[in-house]
Amino acid sequence: MSFIAIDLDGTLLNDQNEISEENIKAIQYAEDRGFEVVISTGRAYFDVQAICEKAGIAPFVIGTNGATIHSKNKTCVSSVTLTKDCVETIIQWLDERNYYYEVFTDKAIYTLKKGREHFYNEIQRLKRADLDADMKELVEVAERQFDQFGYVLVENYYDILKQEEEFYNILVCSFDKKELEEARSQFKKFDELMVVSSADHNIEITSKRASKGMALEKLACLMNKSLDQAMAIGDSNNDLSMFQKVTYSVAMGNAKDVIKAACTTTTLKNNENGVAQAIYRYMDNFVIQK
């Protein structure tokens, strides 16, 4: 038995935020042959669970960029949190500079009402503008972000800090590259933090002890299994850590060249059932190696 770790956005999900029938069948095909499928994403577990239930699948889930691991029976088997003091330091800095941010906990995704309205209006303004293809795609990705399950809108960041919940991840968004780079540089100074990105308009902040790669390695250890024959499929910077832990890494056809260069091979785009193609090709290679 081995693992197949699959990113969600831009990978398993198509541009309608759905898992295609072809990808579902490929996952079931792999599971029927004893392979463990793991969804590995920056999304919160409760959001992933809603997506999986709709698709009729029940995989292991690595959520919030490796901060959480949930078993097939929905039990949290591992979590790596940010301290409340650390969260306060981060969101106070972001709030003072009017960044749009979302705070992920074990119960909800918290964001400021005024910040969400401003970011939504910015998306709508950009949609009306004359954009190049890359920027148009980025705006569409940002808009699909609002389809996530579990948002709670609050008036100010103090309302977030009052929550007696586990804090896992902070997502920061901006279409201003200079502004985003300033935030990235600010939080990379913190030894206890990991800063990655899942798209060109965001950064994602977790504990230094949390990444998709570390979580996949931890899951294998918990199950007393090896990653020697494991495969990982993804499209973004936050997938690099899991690519480094597996033998067979696959970049989506829609991934940037730097991601493709870091992988063993490339598959079709997310709108072309690239995950299904990667799984079937992997299964054939695995059988040959056996």
From TrEMBL:
Signal peptide: none annotated. GO terms for cellular component: cytosol. It comes from the Bacteria. GO terms for molecular function: magnesium ion binding; phosphatase activity. InterPro entries: Cof, HAD-like_sf, HAD-SF_hydro_IIB, HAD_sf. PROSITE patterns: COF_1, COF_2. Pfam families: Hydrolase_3 (PF08282). Coiled coil: none annotated. NCBIfam families: Cof-subfamily, HAD-SF-IIB. This is HAD family phosphatase.
